[in-house]
Amino acid sequence: MRLFNYTFNYKQLGKALFFLFIAYFTYLMWLITIQYIPINFKVAFLNIKQTEIKLFHYQLAFFSHVYTSIFVLILGLFQFSNWLRNRYVKFHRFAGKIYIGLVLGIAGPSGLVMGYYANGGWFTQISFCLLAILWMVFTYQAYAFIKKGQIQKHKNFMLRSYALTLSAISLRLFKWLIVITFELPPMDTYYIVAWAGWLVNLGIAEIIIFSHLSLLNKTKTKVNV
Question: What is the pTM of this model?
Fold first, then answer.
């Protein structure tokens, strides 16, 4: 579509809106994070975790997870900027190393501990523990493939990893949508978002990867012909 001698690029617009959407919800996550600064055992989510928060290892896991996950969200968003990646390669690599280090060293393991103590019993515990494990596995795979120089596989696993990172946002978004749309008991809503919060994201990531792979195959076929 040409408007005032300017070609309107829907793909670029979509990317810009996506970045703005994630940036806005990352800001909201930051507002949640600062509730726990300085360390406070009786605020927000911890008001319903008074039994678990008495355990030192849970305290360590919770605050480690909260304080690092916000930076994982921000760093991951930068990793998907083509403009930033092409013009500032060193920053892209540095940010990527920090992202991977935080997920594998702090946010992922602490998330696994928190998943073990999740509300709702084994049904939600399995979901959050599986989320933490896949998060670490996908992130490590992204690191392993870039070390081998397999860029496309690195991108695919970074997309999967960040899709799970975004579960911090999607879980709360889905919860809000369910609450304003349906009159479900709070625990039923929690059961749903515990799984949908990351499965939907991962499903979207797989669709994007499959679509890109199909496009690459079509391009290769045309070149060979």
Answer: 0.87
